[in-house]
Each structure stands twice: as C-alpha cells, then as structure tokens.
Amino acid sequence: MIGLGAVTYFAYHTVEGDRGVLAYLRLQNEILDAEMQLSKVSSERTEMEHRVLLLRPDHLDPDMLEERARIMLNMGREGEVVVFDKRR
After folding, report:
1. What is the per-residue pLDDT for 77?
2. What is the pTM of this model?
C-alpha cells in the first residue's frame, strides 16, 4: 500500500508539478509566442532602420525627405488628394 501511494505521489507530481509535463508544455508555448513576437519586432526594426538610413545626410533620399516634411508640416501640394492609412 505504501509503495502504491509513493508511485501515485511521484506520478502526480511528474505530470502536475512545478517542473512536470504540463509545466513543460506551457513553457514551450510561451517560448514559441516569444519567438514569434521577436520575429515581428525584428522585421519592424529592420524596416525602421532602412527608413532612417534614407534620411541620413550622407545618403538623403529626396522622396523620403519630402514625405517626412509633408507629415511634419501637415501640408501638401495644391490639387492633391490625401488618403489616410488607418494602420498607423
């Protein structure tokens, strides 16, 4: 009876314990979520770095400069139609 109790105790904690199988599966899901978030943030950072590179004085892109000036000054050319992007 004592042996059966010990086996049951250890089997329960193998599955449900702090370092059990269920905790391991939860941790694996958290790692997967974190890796997906990292991938998303890394791609956003790469895109931002590219946009910043286009505004550097030694490599100034006139189109990017005009875009930033329009956004900052909230102005456009006469006769232009402005379409707002709801994602930003």
Report:
1. 78
2. 0.56
